Structure formats: C-alpha cells, structure tokens
Amino acid sequence: xxxxxxxxxxxxxxxxxxxxxxxxxxxxxxxEQASRQVDLxxxxxxxxxxxxxxxxxxxxxxxxxxxxxxxSLAVYETTFKKLNVNGKTTATKGSDILNRYHSGSLTxxxxxxLCASGRVVGTEVYVVGHDPQTYKExxxxxxxxxxADRVTVLQVGxxxxxxxxxxxxxxxxxxxxxxxxxxKAVNAAGFHVLARPSNYDACTPDDVEAVFKRLEGIDVSEIxxxxxxxLGANKSLQATVDKxxxxxxxxxxxxxxxxxxxxxxxxxxxxxxxxxxxxxxxLYSIGKDELPKLKIDAAVERWSNTDEERNIRxxxxxxxxxxxxxxxxLSTNMEYFKAVHDKLTEQGYEIDKAGTFAAYYPSKILRALxxxxxxxxxVLYLSLVIPALNRRRKLQYILFAVFAIIAAVPVLMGSxxxxxxxxxxxxxxxxxxxxxxxxxxxVRSRKMPEHISLPRMIVTAALALWVTxxxxxxxxxxxxxxxxxxxxxxxxxxxxxxxxTFVMPIIxxxxxxxxxxxxxxxxxxxxxxxxxxxxxxxDMPVKIKTLVGxxxxxxxxxxxxxxxxxxxxMPVSGLELQFRAFLEKALYARPRTKELMIGHPxxxxxxxxxxxxxxxxxxxxxxxxxxxxxxxMVETFAHMRTPIYMSFVRGIGxxxxxxxxxxxxxxxxxxxxxxxxxAAKGNQEGSKKD
Length: 690
Prior knowledge:
It is a single chain. This protein is of the alpha/beta class. Helices cover about 60% and strands about 10% of the residues. The protein is built from 28 helices and 12 strands. Strand 5 (about 150-155) and strand 6 (about 160-165) form a beta hairpin. The two termini are about 50 Å apart.
C-alpha cells in the first residue's frame, strides 16, 4: 500500500496563512456589521398616484407612508407630461394654437395678434408658466439642454412665453431638471429626498453646478442617477465628484437585473472611485412586472433576503396597483410598507439614510501570508498525487519558494489584484480536495472493523462529514482572505471563477483517488496509479448501454454547472422554488441544494460503501459526488457581497441537514439491501424445493 507523507513545513505555513485569513475574516465581519442602516424608499409620484386612485389628499397618504416606515421618497426630474397635468407650466403645440386661431376659439387678443403677425409656427412648442418658481427652473433648464438657437423668449401681452423648436411628443417626455417644489414638499412631509437627476448632453461643470444648486437646502439621502449616464459623464465627472463631496452625499448604484454588479451607466465606476467606495451604496427594486405576482409576505421575504445576502442598502419599493382581498388599495400598500419596515428592524437594521461600508483594505503582510499559505497548499496537493515528488522534500521546498514569491510579492508591492483572484480560485479548489484526500489517507491507515452496525455507521459518517467540512472551511477562510475589500463587498470586483469551482474539485479528487485505489478490481488497498488506470479506461470496450449511461452523466453535469450562478438561464422547477422558499423562511441562511441534497448525502453513502465493501467503482463515484458538496461550501464564500457570517452559517446548516438526508438515504439503502437479500434467499430455497 502506498504511504503518502504530509510535509510538516507546508502544513505549518498553511496554518500560519489560516491565522492571517481568520484575522482578515474577523475584520471583514466587523466592517459588515457596522453597516446596518437601510434607506426604505418609494417614488414620490407613486404615492401621489396612490392618493389619486383612492381619492384622498396627498398629505394623508404621505403621512401614512411615513408612519408605515418609509424613510425617503425618490424625486425624478420633471417633464412637461407632468407639468401639463399639475398646471404649473404648460407646453402647447404651435399647430394647436393656430387651429384655435383660425376656428375663432382663440380669444386672447395678444395671442391673436401673435398669430396674425405670423410669429406662431405650427412645428414649434410654446411654453407658458403659471407658477413663477417652476417657470424659472423650466426656462433655465431648456436653455441648458437645447441652447439659445432653439429657445426664444417672446412677450405675449404681460406674460413671457418660450418658443421652442422641438418635436412635441419627444419634448413632452424630456427631462427638464429637478423640481424644487416637489423636493421641498417631500422634506416638509418628513422624508429624505432620494434624488434622481439625469445627465446633460455635452455636460459642462456649469451644468453640474446648476443641478446641485437646485439641491441647496434640501435634505438628500442619496443620489441615484437616472438614464444611461451619471451626471458629468464623460468630461465633467470631476465637477460631480467635487460637488458630491462638498455636500457629503452618497452615490447609489442600481443592482443589475441578473443580481450581479450594476445597471450600466457611463462614468459610474470613475465617479465611485473619485468619491471613494465608502460613499457608495447598492440599490435594488423588485421589477414592475414581477411585483404583482408576489403576495405581500413573499415580497417582504424578498426584501429581507436581499438586504442580508447582497449588501443592498437602498430598498426602492413600488406600490401594488391592485388591492389585496378585502382591503383597500391604500391599506394594502401601507400594510406592505410596514411589514417590510418591521421585518428589517427585527433583523437589526436601522431605517434611515443608507449605511455605507468603511474603506477596508487588509494589511499587506496578512494578505501576503495568505498568499504563501495558498502556495503551500498547492505544493502539498502535488506531493499527495505525485509519488516522486512526495519522496523529494527538497523539491517541495523549492516549488513552495517559487510559488510563494510569485503569489506574495505582487501583494506586498501593490494590490496584487490578479494574483489574488488566482489565489482565491486555488483556495476554492485545493482545500476541499485536500480535505477529502486527508480523509482517504486516514481511513486507509486505520484498521476498520469487519462488521459495523447501521447506527454506528451513521454516527461515524456524520463525524467524518463534520471533520472534512471543517478542513474545507479552511479554503473558505483563504478565499475570503484573498479577496476581501470594499470593492468586492460592493461588487465593483467579482470572483469570476465560480463555474470552474464546480468541476475542478471533482477532477482533483479523482486524480488523488486513483492514486490510492484500484477502481476496477474492487480492492481498497493499492493501485498502479492514475495514468495506468486512465489507460485502462481508454482501452475498455464500450457497449451501447455504457454510452447511454455516459450520455445521462454528461447531461447531469451540464445541468449541474448551468443551473449555478445568475446568468445561466437554466430554469428551476416550481417544486424546488417552493422548497427553497420554505428553507429561507425557516432558517437564517438557506443551505445550498448542491450540499443539502447531493454532496453531503453522497458523502454519507460513500462511508457506507467503504464499510460495506461495495465495489470500488461505486465508492469512487460517491466520493466524486461528495466533492461537490465540499467544493460548494467553499465556493459560497466567493459571493463576497454576502456577509461572511451568513456564508458560514449557510455551510453549517448544509452539513447538519445534509447529514440527516444522508442518514435517511443510508437507512433506505440498508432496508432495500435487506429486502433484496431476503428475496434472493427465498428464491434459492424455492429452487431447492423444485
């Protein structure tokens, strides 16, 4: 039997790196716990629409929303579509004015004189103000957006009128600046303003100054820019940075539809970097088409999970447009707002302006120790699958020195962003594999009892699962220690090797297994090595049923990889969604299906296969599936936006529940084998009688 020796120096370096990774993990947890403030917001226009639908005064609806826990109202730039409704300023087609003039319905003499002189043009738009402040703001913004060659000031009797060269339908929808009257009304009602300005074409620093001048004296919670550009893109971003810093306003970025990173806006990364990532927060809103499909309790649970799992700190709610059974539309929405507020406060969140994450970048020394530990783990794995290397300690030291220098020096000299991703990828694959390899070597070095009862077998398998999981969690600490910083918490940077981590641990464990066991003859003691067994596999005659079996394995593998992540498009069954929803409500953190229903039960069955001396090929298959669960536990920590404590608890829950599922599977297999043995014995006795 091959004996594999573990290099103690490499193990010592791994432990040292683990200590450094754990220190980083504790610091990360402290940073995450310090940001527990959520801005619960809704569109100001949405509440006004709700008031109109219910036939209630806006003041009453605003008061009830505030009492229900809403902290900010989102105010967007005004448009003539809105102004034509509220009557503060109106825009009229020139053709409509001329039609009234020719039909005799235009009675104002000043306007009739203007038409008679040919100064009213049918293709132009005419803007008349009825509220001085609103008209002043509209006039200012139109000159900024369209220029003096397209906007002309006319005097019609005693009032000033703007003649604008524009396509009316497009003009009606055009943004024309932040409305100070709406923002003041929002503050007066007791809310912060979540400002939603848009950018100007060829924006200048003066344009930026004008936007922030409108915000003077306004209590602004955050700014979330509307449209495909942030204010100042692309030549006046520094002016935007300077004004936001001057007014101490944080930047909100909208989470992408795939729940990864952000809705793309030109200039947003540069603006965030200029402000500092400790002044950036993430915003999420349930889609307009999706909300009607969710009952209130499901929507509340969505917000709870969103804030806890994805570092969302601005919850932009929408109103339900249809009332719940036996409720008014107003009471339906107020119940929804209050339920979200109460759920979040129960979880320890404070509802107010959005909290930000401190600018966190760990010590370079700690990070370098983590890099060295990953290098040691890489050499240790190689030494446990290559017999010649396992015997040559000096070569192991040389390899470690080379790998450690390559990994640690870039971190000590700068951020080492690329090598950190490589280290995280290595951690996610190496440590789950090393955990299973250690278990294989442990059981190979021990004399196991010939017969073991089912209860004892279940307990032994569960303990082995816990120990292996603890070893795998070393990889989780290393992965987090490699990547942890504010840019990863906010998803400006993301770990892009997730798909690979679903496959690599299986390959790494397969190589190690075939270096220790002969998968063909069923002996669990020694083998010719992975190369010889691979040659034997390639030389095997293939039957049609084998091809069919391999086809189903391939399909299962594709589904396994494709279902993971956010951009696969692989659908999840309704039954599984219901099961996930149940776990999300029942537990602090829902265990991942790959661990709960696949990897950990397979681990328990692999223990049964070992003790019951099933064919080695069966043990091999179960061990590879068990590697999925161990790899998934570590890969969970690659989602850096999820708090480290939640990822930790998620993995623990997966082990506990997975052990129960595995124990149930072991019991069923034991019963099935007993039934089959009894049936076989009955057949034998029947044959003898015949």
